[in-house]
Amino acid sequence: MEILKCKDVIYENEEIIRFCLNQSCQNTTQYCYECLNTTNSEHHIDCIRFSKIIQFIKEFVLNYNQKKIQFYDISKNLQNISE
């Protein structure tokens, strides 16, 4: 996977480590370590690590696939009952 780099000119070579999920934030949503300490310190709790977001997505996909299988099984059972 390609490493995302900071959009701030001062820190343009720094790796993005967090994303701000605060909807009222007026700053950029992607943060390197330096930006996090300088521009987003007032709502630090809303800034989630990129690795954590990936983990949430993987968990969501896994859960979705499990529900899809359960739905298929239930559908199949209902179909068998109706026959």
Could you explain how this protein is built, in words?
The mean pLDDT is 84. The chain has one domain. The chain has helices spanning 33-38, 50-82; strands at 18-20, 30-31, 47-49. The radius of gyration is 20 Å and the shape is elongated. The longest helix is centred in the last third of the chain and has 33 residues, at 50-82. It contains two helices and three strands, in the order ββαβα. It has a three-stranded antiparallel beta sheet with strand order 2-1-3. The protein is mainly α and 83 residues long.
Task: Describe, in short, the structure shown.
The chain is 47% helix and 10% strand. The chain has 83 residues and is mainly α.
Give the oligomer, counting copies of the same chain as homo and different chains as hetero. single chain
How many angstroms separate the termini? 49 Å
DSSP summary: helix tally: 2
H/E element order:
EEHEH
Residues in helix, %: 40-55%
Number of strands: 3
What are its keywords?
47% helix; 83 residues; 3 strands
Topology overview:
Layout: E1 18-20, E2 30-31, H1 33-38, E3 47-49, H2 50-82
Antiparallel strand pairs: 1-2, 1-3
